[in-house]
Amino acid sequence: MIRRLRRWTACVLLAFSIPWSAVAAADDSPMGFVEAQIAANTGKTGLYVLETGTEALLARAWLVENARQTIEVQYFIWSSDNIGILAAEALLRAAERGVKVRVIVDDLLIDAPDRSLLALALHPNIEIRIYNPQTSVGVPLPKRVLNLLANFRGVNQRMHDKTFVVDGKIAITGGRNMAAEYFDYNHAYNFRDRDALVLGAAVKPMQANFEAFWRSELAVPVEQRFEGLGLLQKNVQVGDAEVQQVYRELRAYAKLPENFAPEVRAAIADTPSSFARLAQQMRWGDVAFIHDRPGKNAKGLGLAGGGESTSALARLLQGAQRSVVIQSPYLVPSEEALALLQQLRARGVAVRISTNSMASTDNLPAFSGYRNQRERLLAMGVQVHEYKPAPQVQQQLIQRLTALPRIAPVFSLHAKTLVVDGRTLYIGTFNFDPRSENLNTEVGVVVTDEVLARAVQASIETDMAPGNSWDAATDDPDQHAPLAKRSKVRLFQWLPLRSLL
Questions:
Q1: Please, what is the angle between helix 308-318 and helix 335-346, to 10°?
Q2: Residue 141 CB: number of other CB atoms within 10 A?
Q3: Chain-wide mean pLDDT for the chain?
Q4: What is the pLDDT of residues 241-292, one digit of tens each?
């Protein structure tokens, strides 16, 4: 959370492959560099990896500040913590200068007061839709229970997409949700995550996917969630005066230095002036955007079914000739995934996986599923490295670590990345578990670029190094978890949860 910020290290945010002087000559406006880049690389996609929470936050903030026409956003989690509130206020400011803002948020873990959510949706330039609203927005407790009993599969089909598209030209996708812990501002628990900044051709299919979800009957306007009477429908109304009061409170919150530090504002404003100093790191080429359709797959009696993203990533793995490097916070491969890994090992393909340890994980049920399979994975010859809760690399990844409490927060892995043969790279939202395989809609970008793939693989290898991870085959990582955590995991191991993990 943006509190008590004492020092801010100005970060290198974006890297571009043509000189800043050429961009400025083409268009002196803040977004001119985007259009110049796209014009200089017709039909191609530029990709830059956002490795730290600092640069990922600044990238989003700068894009909102400089959007000209549209902002289209999909998130699985949107919290009412400091980051979530500031993000809402930034979107409100964009809407007030005429930008059309559309937001789709999954219903399961949205955390926003009903009246504030409705007030934002009533702005003439803001539309908000809730995906598959069965347990949260506008749903009283009796209706939640009824939905779980009558439509268990439907309740578990979630939108796990995370895309952020500005003006149909520049976008961000990857593992981060809109909450403090994804940008290194939580004082107790932060995530090591990874996003991709995308320019050019691949943004169009990202925008088309957003439109498909927007038109889906599963995406329901916020206003409709608060209409009606009775035990099975909430009735929430806000008048004009209350709407304006919500807006005033958001603006006042963002003006307080303890909530939105002046150093952060300066870093956002200074971003364009940094371009001239940046190395040529953005890579241009053919980038594919993979995604699922709303609802993931046809309804059935069970919880299986797969999806387009599952098939696309399976094909990537099947094409591996030498090596596969996977980074996933939750490692619960299905029987089909285990068979695929076995086939890769039989062909001599080296498989290395970076995942959470019991000590670092935020999801004990998912870890219990992995713990039930760990020996089987190791017996195949899969190398598994479990992330430490206080890895040495934390010092480099959390640039504001000195601004946090004396006892550093737990650092947990959340990045979802795949590198095949050191040349093909996937960055997205797909966890290596049954939920991503069968129930949650997922997205991501795939690029074949040896320079980019090897750079990301090197970053994952750093995460797997002894100072940052334990070797699951030799180090007995579970011993480092508190007794209470170990006891809970043992309990979860006995429960029939695998298809839901």
A1: 20
A2: 9
A3: 87
A4: 999 999 999 999 888 887 777 766 776 666 655 543 443 578 999 999 999 9
Distance CA 492, CA 277 (A): 51
Percent of the chain with pLDDT over 90: 63
User: What is the rounded distance in angstroms from the CA atom of residue 362 to the CA atom of residue 189?
Assistant: 9
Neighbours of 177 (CB within 10 A): 23
Say which CATH superfamily domain 287-500 falls into: Endonuclease Chain A (3.30.870.10)
Question: Residue 191 has which token pair?
Answer: 């995530």
CATH class of the domain defined by 20-275: alpha beta
Phi, psi of 494 (to 5 degrees): -85, -15
Supply the pLDDT for residue 183. Answer: 87
In degrees rounded to 5, what are phi and psi of residue 322? -125, -45
Q: Give 412-467 as a DSSP string.
A: EE---EEEETTTEEEEES--BSHIIIIISB-EEEEEE-HHHHHHHHHHHHHHHSTT
d(CA 288, CA 53): 24
Q: Which residue ranges make up each domain of the chain?
A: 20-275, 287-500
CA 321 to chain CA centroid, nearest Å:
29
Nearest Cα to 362, choosing from 392, 389, 401?
A: 389
DSSP SS3 for 289: strand
